[in-house]
From TrEMBL:
One of its GO terms (molecular function) is [protein-PII] uridylyltransferase activity. Residues 19-81 form the CBS domain. The keyword ATP-binding does not apply. Pfam families: CBS, DUF294, DUF294_C. This is CBS domain-containing protein. Keywords: CBS domain. The keyword Chloroplast does not apply.
Amino acid sequence: MTFSVPYLSVFQQTAGDLMGPALCRLQRDTPCGSAVQQLADTGQGCAVIVDRGQRVQGLLTRADVIRRVACRVSADTPIDEVMSRPALIATTTMPAYRALAELQARRERWAPVVDASERLQGLFDAQTALAHGLPAALQRLAAVTGPATDQGLRRCRNGQAHIIDGMAAEGASAAAMQRMLASLNDDLHARAVEMGVNGMAEDGWGRPPVAFAMIVMGSSGRTESFLDPDQDNGFVIADYPDQDHGQIDRYFIELARRTTRSLDAAGIPLCKGHVMATNPLWRKTLPQWQDQIRRWLRRRSETGFLQSNILLDCRGVAGDMALAAELRDHMVAQFAASRSYVRSLTLNESTRGVGLGWFDRLITESEDSAHPGELDLKRLGLMPIVEVARLYATAHGITACATHDRLDALAEANVLSGGDVAALKDAHEFIAGLIFRRQLNDIAREARPGKHITPGALTPAEQDRLVTSLKSVQGMVKRLARDLVGPDAPDGG
């Protein structure tokens, strides 16, 4: 199959992005005759029945109209006697691929789309969402959809390689594949949170006592995922009175436990470094996060620098996204205002080398290591690019999170030249592509996906391109040190 733009957009966009207007909105007591006329007047194939607060009550489709005629229902009959229950009520933030797959599973076409307050915003039409290549696309959609259970999430996680394998076969860019995986994993996180909230309500905990957002960090936060993710997450919780701390903290401790457990069961393992919402260091109210940032700035330590760099890649994936955005904006503004802190962050990261040694030889691991004779493409290739982009962006108050977005913003701000940015983006794309190739081969032989390569397995042209890519990265790492640290900076080569 061909991965056309409409097909990819189903994975990368939300139901809110792809919905159309709900032109025909009716009340439950609208007579059938009037409803039929309004459907004809608007030209829509579906009317949405709402209450006076614009909350969805049902649907009236052309099939319902045909059934009404067949049953000889009077034109004065209220439509609540003939309307259908919606097969799905989508939220504006629901991934479009899941809305589409759930409608297909129920053999339905339409889903009303509502906002966080459950008010109607539009109408999602499965046929419009996938106007081309529908049968082939749905075969792949089935691989990443499942019920809201641990087993259902596991099925979605296991199906990701099927999607990426298809994209790779069609020549999709590594950046597009990373964004695809990030979108799929965002949905897994959001569903795990939803399962936790609903399960706690059923178990007598009630609903969340205050607003909150789940954030992800690391490659997930940068939307640069591969096929072997682990958990890097936290909670940003709205402020609340001190006297309510015991009750509210207990709630979010339990929600964090349930959510991270569900993600682990789905195949996104627990973080070995405990960067998870179960750790109180990564579960705070927004004011507590702001206090933590002030402490990092005031009490400088290697641990604080490490944690700062982790949080700089944070992004909201569930809950109140405004809380996550406010945290990011505040953090970047505070760090950018302290040139000495950015210098310290840079010095802390300057020990990371690039996988290129003397005379442009690729650096491989020793014979007594877990990967003898192999090059760690992520640690010695991708991460130096990530850190160059992150540190330059932080120094200049740029709040973008993805590496390519940070680099584009740096070029726009004339911090880096267009040529330098193009070279770094090309290097990032090439190295990420090599990692995907390794991981898909690993999965095909039922091995754990890795991020190492044997240089000898590359073609001569690929080896030359890898060396050229790493030389570009190496030069930029040295420039970063000079720009943000000074002439006495460590080499970083």
